[in-house]
Structures are given as C-alpha cells and as structure tokens.
Amino acid sequence: MKGVAAALALVGLALLPQRADALSKDDIIELCNGFPGNTIRIGVVTKGNLEKTLARWPATFETYLQEELADYGCNTTMVPLDFDVITPYTRDQEIDFIFPNPSAFVDLKEQFGINEFVSVKRNFAPQGSNETQELDQFGGVVVRAADRYTNINTFADLKANPQTMRVCAVKGGAFGGWHIQWYEMLKAQIDVDTHFGTGGGDHAAFLANVADEAANGSDAKVGGVYFIGNHELALQYTMVNRTCDIGIARTETIEGQVEDGVYTFNDVYTISDKQVELGFPQYISTPLYPEWPLARLAHVPVDMEQVLSIPLLSMDKESEPAVIGKHAGFGFPYSYEPVREMSIALEIFDCDLGYERQAEFPKQCDACEPGYYGRVSPVTGLRICSPCPVGTYTAQGATASTMCMACEDGETTSSEGSVEGACTQEPYDFTTIAMFIAVPVAFVIAMMSLNILWLRCVLKRQMTISETFQHIFQMFKSMGKFAFGCADLITDIIVVVNALRNDSYAAYHQAYWAIGCLAFVASAIDLYISVAIYHTTMQYLAGDHEKITQKVQKSMKGYQRRGSLRAPDSPMGSQVAVEVAQMDHRRVWNLLLQKLLMQEKGTAGLLLLVEDIPMICMALVVAGLEASRDCVELPGGLIVFLVSFGASCLFGGHRFFIASGFFGQVGKYDRAFAKAVGVPAKLSSSNNGAMPVYSDDDFSGELRLVSSVSPKGSAARGSAKVRPPVGGDEGEHGK
User: Fold this and answer.
1) Burial class (CB in 10 A: 0-12, 13-18, 19+), 406
2) Nearest 5 degrees, angle CA 72-CA 78-CA 82?
3) Fewest CB atoms less than 10 Å from the CB: which of 136, 178, 205, 210?
C-alpha cells in the first residue's frame, strides 16, 4: 500500500509547477545542512487546545518525518503556535514551515508570501461503521441544546428572534470555530455585535457573567459572543452545562465528544444542518472549505517542498502516525480562494489593488471600471477605485487598473475618469503670462505711488501735474535700469549654479563656472550703480542737497589729488581749493550724475569684456563639442543653455552701445566739474531758495529746468526753460 502511495506522490510532484526533476541524495543533504542544526522547524496551530495538539501531531511532524529523512541528516521539530503568535513567528522566521487553519494561511500568504504544497486529510469513521472516510474538506457547526430554543432551527429563525443569548465560539481568529459561522450569519443579515446583546468577551468574562447570573437571577445575564478558547468547551457549555445558548465549533467536534461520552447525538440540534445537502458524513451548518495546508515560508528553498512532500504524500492512513493524529495522511490542496473571498466579506482582509469592496453584502471585490484606478484610501487605509485625474486615462475597456497613463504633452482630458482616446489639445492657459505681467506692473504702480506720496510729504505741499509726470518719467527710467541689472544678476547666478551641478570635472565647464563668477561680481557692481543713480536723483528731486554735496566733496578731493582739475582761468593740473557749499545745487547734482554715468559706462565695458564676449565664445565652443551628443551635457540642460546664450547676446549688444560712449562721458564729467567749481551759486538770489525740478531725457547730462518751486509752493518767476551749462562751454547757452 505504501509503495502505491509513494508512486502516486511522485506522479503528483511531477505535475507541480515547481522543479519537476527528482532531487539527488546529495542535493537533499545540502538542503538540510542549510538549516540551523540541520533541524527543520514546523509550526502547528493549536486551535486553543495545546494538550490535544501535543497528543496528535508530534507523531507525524517529528517522529515520522525524522525517520523518513534520517538518511539525509535532517531533523524535524514541532513548534506549537497559539493564534496570537502565528504572525510574529512567521514574520521573524522563527519557523520554517507552518500548519495553519485556512484563514490564517490566507492572511500569512497575503502578508509574507508563504506557499501551500500539501493539505491534511481527516480520517473519519461514522459511529457504528468499520469503514473510514478520507475528508479533505471541512466546515463548521452552529448548535443548540435539543430541548432549548426549539423555535430556532435555521439562520433565518435566528434572525427573526433577536433576544439576549450567550453565543460561545472558539477565538476571534478561529476559522472553523468562528469565521465561517460568522459569514453565514452575515448572509442572513445578522449583526453579531448587537443581535445577541451588547456583552461578550473572553473566557473569563463568560465565567464572570455566568456566576453573576447564578447569584442575581436571569436579569444579570449579558448576551453577546464569548470566545471560550477551544472547540470542545464551546459545545460542552451549550449541551452539558447549558450556560451557553448557542455553541460554535468546527465539524468533527460533535462526533468526537459523542464518542468520548460527553453527550449524545440526541442532546444536540444543528441549526441549518446541511449534512444531507452536501453529502457530508458529519454534522455541518456551513459550506465546505479546504482542509488545513502545510506551507513553506518564503526564506526556505522551494526544493524543500519536494523533500517533505514525498514522505507526507506517501503516508499510509493506517500507519501509526496517522492513527495517533486521527488523519488519513496528506494530499494536494484545493484552491483557498473561497476562504479569501469570505475573509474579504468579513473585512478581515482587503481587496487587491485595482479592486474595491462592495458596500453591501456579500461585500466581494469589484474590479475598477475603465477610467478608474486602484489606490489606498488615506482615510480608511482600504483599497478603493478612484477616477483618473484630468489629463490622464486608462486603456479602453481595461478593468482593475492600478495606474493611469498621462496624455501627451500639450494634451489633456475634459473630465476625470477618462479612457484612451479622450485626450484633446489643451487650451492655452494665459493665467501664468497674465500673472507674469500683472505682478510687476502692480509693483511698479505701487512703488511710484509711494514715491510720489513720499515726495509730497518731503515738499509739504501738493505736487503739480508737470512735476508728477516728470518724476514718473524719471522713475520709469530708473526702474528699467534696475530691472535690467536684476535680470542680468539672476542669469549669472543660474549659469554658475548649473555649471557647478553639471560635470564640473570637465575643463570647459570649469571655465564656464569661472566666467560666471566674474560676471556675477561685475553685474553686482552694475546693479549698485543703477541703484545709486536712482537714489541720487530722488535725493535731488526731494531737495536733499546736503547729502549730494557731501558726495561731491568726496569726489572732488579724489579729483584734485589726480591733478586733473580743469576750470576756467586755471591751468591743467592746478590745485584749486573749492568751497562746494557755495556751488549751485543744480550743477552739483549734474556733476554727481555725470560721475555715476561715467562709472556706469565703464562697468558696461567691464561686463562686456569679462562676461558677454567670453560667455558667447564659450557657449559656441560648448555647443560645438556637444552637438554630436544631442546636447545632453550642456550646462543646465538645453533650455537653460539657450536662455543663457540669448541673454549673453542681448546684454552684450546693449552694453557695447553703452560702453562705446565711455570716453565721451569722461569729457562730459571733466567739463561738468569745471562748470561746477567755476560758477558761484545763484539760486539763493534768483529763486529764493526754491527747489528746482529737472527732467533727464537720456541720462546724457542735458537737463532742462522745468520749474522752480519755492518751499511754500509758489513758482519762482523767470526761471523756466533755463538750460544748465552741461557738456559744453558756458557761452554756448548764455548765463
């Protein structure tokens, strides 16, 4: 008999999707040597009854397997596992194989990837029969005492008669002792949390309530689901002690207790008995499910399945280990998908990604429809289906999608939940451009308004329309120069940063970085001069002549030290003691302005030499070197490179135009200086100390006196349209 079983086992192994070729003795020895102490650890779930587990299973998993594998140096040991330690033992790899109930197996497979390869067959002999049956499926029973609650015969009756009842089950994680019965009650729309009462708890809570009822009467009874800890006690309390109203256990428990003389079949009534319907030899209230599997943990080599399968599949059902274990050996397992579906309905497990649990019973998983994709809800942590966001889609007719595909650049979808073919040309969004224009314009308007308000406060009078427009014109020019300087500075920063990020080891990139640093410094100087021109102009317009005078005094000291003072009736290089405080304020400001313009033109020439020309040349060299490699190594990428190159050309042309007037500006500065020191102040007599207001047409120094306003607000007579002697001899314009 054993030889036939072994042959069948080998045929079955050849059909497995794993390795089909038989392992040699050396292969098995090598596999056994891979376990600590050559010992294979097999975890066995106790179902809450450690004594019974130790009586039944060591003969199979220790004695029998060890004898079968002795030639290979393999030892086996059984590790009893309560429900509470199944997960940590599997997670921490404290066992190598596990023999769990079906729901625990499905949970561990989902979490840790364990794999079943054989399942147990129960050996059952009906009472009064000498013939045994091999059962590779099982179910559960829901029972009452035969003479109690006689109006409850089905789950529908249980639903129709809500009352305070103590329901005794095994444990919250027990498959045959709770889950499958709970599932049947759910089908009957029975809410187990409230239908029997609001109590419930563990074995201790059950005993406490029984004692309280005995002491205080039936009013002290608290109904609910109580987890007693093992199958036998749950039924014993129902039929013998009668402290439980409903008992829940797995199939074979009733037959085993009747055989042991605990009670008789006449004492038991099985609610919704399906024995005849299913053709099953034991009392049963639920559908059938696959028997317990033996599963390999993920860290164990897959070939070990073959090592254990051969002796287990070859086991004779009449052998001593089988008789002691009350089983008929092992066979190939059924699919455990029904177990998984039941666990999903009970919300023990979640759906796969791309599926969503139904809101109503049976709460199975529905695949996400086309246009929807699976994701994990950040609120509940459950897997749900959500519509693809605008701009994405799923394939036409595709279900259970786990991600959405994006439309091509420049395309989008009109709504959420789109499918392939829904992408259309994206309408151009002018919001960004509008904001890009509106924000600077609003800033300029705000700055001009604040500046005019500031001038009015300084002048302590209302400004005329002519003065207002003159100041606005001046501010526009100054802000334009300021914006130009800021843009140049930002461009230099981008060049330096991207040159540092991209292949800094390359020689031409190092040169790019060095040029960028020099350009950064020169741009900062240029920006400083632009700010100084604006600041000096505003000081003059506000009548703050003292600060302008102080700046000119410093400038004149340096000018005299160079010995280049040119003034009427003074030879070149003469040392002239100038009393700046007596100068005409208009000419003092013009002198300072000419100096700043000269510095600006000089800085423009410096930037042209250290930034624009080298940057343009370097950009052409880099582009030539990278042209053969699709420009993948361009500093900052192609877009940044093109922006930088375009900016260099634009700024270079502008600076060349400015720098070309540098030497002419030096002459203007010299003449302005000579005029300033050669003409005494006259405003005190002609304008009554009024504050003159000028316009600067092109920063060339050709200024026109628009009006001369006294501090009291009255215009000084005879002062309009006087051209200051700037850039030429005083006789050109008359005094």
Assistant:
1) middle
2) 155
3) 205
Distance CA 85, CA 96 (A): 15
Looking at residue 563, its pLDDT comes to: 43
**Exposed/middle/buried for residue 337 (C-beta within 10 Å: 0-12, 13-18, 19+):** exposed
pLDDT tens for each residue of 667-679? 777 777 666 655 4
Measured distance CA(634)–CA(640) in Å, rounded: 9
SS3 39: strand
The pair of structure tokens assigned to 490 is: 């930002």
CB atoms within 10 A of CB 716: 18
Give the H/E segment covering residue 104. helix 102-112
Check residue 157 and give its pLDDT: 92
Gap between the Cα atoms of 102 and 176, Å rounded: 9
Pairing of strands 293-296, 246-250: unpaired
Residues with Cβ within 8 Å of 28's Cβ and at least 6 positions away in sequence, in order, are: 69, 72, 74, 307
- Paired residues of 567 in beta bridges: 570
- Give whole-number Cα distances, 700 to 209, 382, 485, 674, 704, in Å: 104, 74, 19, 17, 12
Report the candidate in 481, 479, 477, 403 with the shortest Cα–Cα distance to residue 443: 479
Q: What is the 3-state secondary structure (H, E, C) of 594-635?
A: HHHHHHHHHHHHHHHHHHHHHHHHHHHHHHHHHHHHCCCCCC
CA-nearest of 716, 722, 672, 673 to 691 is 716
Q: What is the pTM of this model?
A: 0.55
Report how far residue 223's alpha carbon sits from residue 571's, in angstroms, rounded to the nearest whole number: 120
DSSP per position, 368-406: PPTTEEEEE-TTT--EEEEEPPTTEEB-TT--S-SS-EE
Q: Residue 709: which of 450, 536, 456, 453 has the closest Cα?
A: 456
Separation of alpha carbons 120 and 149, rounded Å: 36
End-to-end CA, the chain: 136
Nearest-angstrom CA–CA distance, 282 and 250: 10
The answer to whether residues 597 and 533 touch, using CB atoms and an 8 Å cutoff, is: yes
Long-range CB contact pairs, 517-522, < 8 A, 24+: 518/610, 518/611, 519/492, 519/495, 519/607, 519/610, 519/611, 519/615, 520/489, 520/492, 520/493, 520/496, 522/603, 522/606, 522/607, 522/610, 522/611
- Give the per-residue pLDDT at 378: 86
Query: What Å distances lie between residue 411 and 386, 419, 431, 652, 687, CA to CA?
Result: 21, 14, 17, 38, 69
- The mean-pLDDT minimum among 50-59, 321-330, 490-499 falls in 490-499
The values of phi and psi at residue 624, to 5°, are -65, -40
